[in-house]
């Protein structure tokens, strides 16, 4: 059983049917203690305004999502991308979010050099560490699914996230976000989670539908798919993680079409029975 | 430069625009020495008829594609699936194909036990070895992209394919098919290919389009995407592979819509410049 005080509902789970004020109101009236905010929505509503809104409703943040995409082969573009991450870290600090979800970036079609891209990403993260430390916000490296390696993230496995953390040597300010949808398939996921240990600073759940209609925007509710979510939660908890369980469901055809209170009700049930 | 005698064009590359006789005729008039045949098409045309057709046109096979899907949690279903693989091995033998591309199967939604599924798959392959050996056809284990782990293949990495081969201890009759589209993202692909060595019995090329419209059916022509194909070919050749380079492009919106001779002409060019 998950302690209800550990439930966080990510803003993307109600991305289409709620503005930020509507989303926060829905969390508050359903007794949800925590959220992770989506950066686009937060900036649209205003960072300061959003910070007041969540605080006034007694809601805390488990994270701020997302920034990164620093892998351009062009030095000027890459520097601009790093500056944008620094702004996102400042926004996360203003929101009192403990971490910023970091999405590395994809392979630059101009150079097709995936190993070189990974080295560039790692060097770029190293440059961001001082800013993250002074902002008091962890950079949560999120291994993302290999299917978005070309466009969004060359950080594809827990193993590589651990290797990057080893090389950065900054565990005080660089952690790892474990997303079940991104890592469930990995034959070495158990070893990767165990090795990550206290680096794990964020844990996201959703399910992989066997009959998925869209690999990216048709994620399933916990219990509706093929991922053994209790097993994965057991692994992160055995590794020392006792923080929020963040429900993050991108679902164009189903959950984004439903009433917010209905969705939240199903989540409250499913985190007990299927996560 | 690729020796043109090493070019094989997989039947799926012209799947929609050609019947089997049209496909074989297109290969013959363009001087393509080798193909890998698609099982559905082969059975529709007749295995014996197809065998005569390719032989009469002086075309050899680099493989027969595919069979497998043996991961059902139901014993009767799994036994029936293994019987189907045995039939496919016999068909491959009749076609004089050196290997049968083996697709493991996905996670059974009824048990959600991915580690258990992988053990079932491995045990099932072990049962197929005597039949493969007597048919004289290699089982080519093909690690497939993690995005199809749920439905098609729990064999997701070169590392796992090597582990399975180690445990099977039957390198004379179980090999590994390396598909660039499936493995290019893997941070450990170089190590996996080097470890595979002479186990590599099949090598498939296509490209990953940065602006892909469909992750499964919008593969790109070599040179149009983000995969460093010459680097991957260098790895398999350094590992000892000197067989056919098989062009396998699933492309609903582009290459399947084009004239067969045009497609083959582009392939002949691109294998020299971009693969």
How is the topology of this model organized?
The structure is a homodimer of 275-residue chains.
Chain A: E1 7-10, H1 20-29, E2 34-38, H2 39-45, H3 47-56, E3 60-68, H4 75-94, E4 99-103, H5 114-135, E5 138-141, H6 158-168, E6 174-179, H7 180-183, H8 189-196, E7 200-205, H9 229-238, E8 245-247, H10 260-273
Parallel strand pairs in A: 1-2, 1-8, 2-3, 3-4, 4-5, 5-6, 6-7, 7-8
Helix pairs in contact in A: 4-5, 6-8
Largest protein-protein interface: A-B, 34 and 33 residues
What is the CA-atom radius of gyration of chain A, in angstroms?
Answer: 18 Å
Q: Tell me the series of helices and strands of chain A, N- to C-terminal.
A: EHEHHEHEHEHEHHEHEH
Count of DSSP helices of chain A?
A: 10
Number of DSSP strand runs of chain A: 8
* Termini separation of chain A: 9 Å
User: Percentage of helical residues of chain A?
Assistant: 40-55%
Which class best fits the helix and strand makeup of chain A? alpha/beta
Biggest sheet strand line-up of chain A: 1-2-3-4-5-6-7-8
Q: Which sheet architecture does the biggest sheet of chain A show?
A: 8 strands, parallel, barrel
Strand content of chain A: 15-25%
- What gross morphology of chain A would you assign? globular
Could you state the oligomeric state of the chains shown?
A: homodimer
What is the typical, i.e. mean, pLDDT of chain A? 97
């Amino acid at each position: 059983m998950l302690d209800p005080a550990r439930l966080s509902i990510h803003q993307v789970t109600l991305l289409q049917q709620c503005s930020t004020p509507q989303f926060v109101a829905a969390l508050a009236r359903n007794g949800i203690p925590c959220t992770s905010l989506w950066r686009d929505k937060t900036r649209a509503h205003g960072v300061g305004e959003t910070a007041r809104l969540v605080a006034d409703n007694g809601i805390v943040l488990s994270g701020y999502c997302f920034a990164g995409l620093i892998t351009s082969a062009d030095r000027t573009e890459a520097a601009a991308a790093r500056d944008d991450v620094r702004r996102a870290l400042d926004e996360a600090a203003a929101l009192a979010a403990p971490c910023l979800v970091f999405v590395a970036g994809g392979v630059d079609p101009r150079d097709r050099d995936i190993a070189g891209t990974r080295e560039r990403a790692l060097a770029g993260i190293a440059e961001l560490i001082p800013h993250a430390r002074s902002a008091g916000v962890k950079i949560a490296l999120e291994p993302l699914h290999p299917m978005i390696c070309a466009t969004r993230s060359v950080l594809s496995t827990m193993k590589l996230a651990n290797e990057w953390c080893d090389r950065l040597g900054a565990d005080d300010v660089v952690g790892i976000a474990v997303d079940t949808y991104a890592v469930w398939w990995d034959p070495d996921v158990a070893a990767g989670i165990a090795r990550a240990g206290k680096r794990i600073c964020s844990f996201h759940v959703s399910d992989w539908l066997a009959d998925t209609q869209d690999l990216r925007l048709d994620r399933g509710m916990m219990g509706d798919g093929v991922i053994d979510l209790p097993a994965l939660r057991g692994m992160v908890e055995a590794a020392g993680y006792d923080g929020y369980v963040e429900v993050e469901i991108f679902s164009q055809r189903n959950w984004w079409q439903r009433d917010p209170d209905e969705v939240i009700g199903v989540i409250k049930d499913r985190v007990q029975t299927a996560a």
